[in-house]
Amino acid sequence: xxxxxxxxxxxxxxxxxxxxxxxxxxxxxxxxxxxxxxxxxxxxxxxxxxxxxxxxxxxxxxxxxxxxxxxxxxxxxxxxxxxxxxxxxxxxxxxxxxxxxxxxxxxxxxxxxxxxxxxxxxxxxxxxxxxxxxxxxxxxxxxxxxxxxxxxxxxxxxxxxxxxxxxxxxxxxxxxxxxxxxxxxxxxxxxxxxxxxxxxxxxxxxxxxxxxxxxxxxxxxxxxxxxxxxxxxxxxxxxxxxxxxxxxxxxxxxxxxxxxxxxxxxxxxxxxxxxxxxxxxxxxxxxxxxxxxxxxxxxxxxxxxxxxxxxxxxxxxxxxxxxxxxxxxxxxxxxxxxxxxxxxxxxxxxxxxxxxxxxxxxxxxxxxxxxxxxxxxxxxxxxxxxxxxxxxxxxxxxxxxxxxxxxxxxxxxxxxxxxxxxxxxxxxxxxxxxxxxxxxxxxxxxxxxxxxxxxxxxxxxxxxxx
Length: 466
Description:
The chain crosses the membrane at residues 12-30, 50-71, 83-104, 110-133, 281-306. By secondary structure, the protein is an alpha/beta fold.
């Protein structure tokens, strides 16, 4: 895995993306060259715009492929299942994006003839590139051999995650048993350090490239810290189980995290530079979204008024950054007085309190659009943890470890947990979403914000909402 702007990215996915960007730009020049060699009478764009046109074409296609999930490659499933059925819709979406770009910036337009050739060449190149990656990803030399220190439930969970091999292929060499820990892994996978033999010798014998320390409770355990240092000096990567989970699942596992890991580990960037960049991103993204969705918002307001009369909006108290309270603004999707005479309730999947219009706008997440005003006021960010009501926050702070950490940054209209986990209506769901929120709080960056926006587009357009 590569770490780019604090975010873990699969080496396979990054390499595939890099190769396909080169293919898209190269096919643009190849298409123009073929058109010229054919002797057709047409005007090429000016040279200073030509490369920019190529980059715009590549960006439109890559965005479309990302929105349809073509870069969420799971090696355990291969590339076939997520490729051929998505390539044509991706190109169709890319064509629509390019049409809009050329309408707004006609100087970038390069003609129908070149466009047809470029799509044909780039489509063929991407098919060949994906087939090449499909074959190479199945080769055993790309696998990493991994060794786990520990044999309890934590080691078992780490092993199951490694066997799943979502974004990287692992071959488990075994589990090194430690004293005073119950065995939760298969007996035949246990490795015993014989007397007089070092962990480094065992690791070299098993040809491992990484050791994951997965001991649940290290107190009172004869922890082989000196042996682990020898392994690291020899070139074997040594990883903590919390970091392993963070890397492989893009979330922070609350059950195994140690306070010292949060304190002394990297991330949690709250510098002035990051704050300025995030605020600038919030303002630009919010204003663009406001302009694009204004007709949709007007039609939504009219539909709500026709079905259930005024008010069209509703505001509700939520917990923001540093625990400060603010009133979030949303389109009303429930009947009036939905919680009259009772305590606050989690919104359920088929909640009878939701109106017919409310079901539609919730599914498409249109009900969230008025929160743009909260972002412009500085109470929220465009991307961040979902803001919760004080009633639920007080409960979750008592029952879920580190829940209050998510309030160290502003809440968002959309977020890493919302696009990765989706719907949640219980404390257990809140725990799962918190693990994604902690990952975002720890690793938040402009890159991660862009990835969340792409995933949000995919959720709204192709997978529905909560």
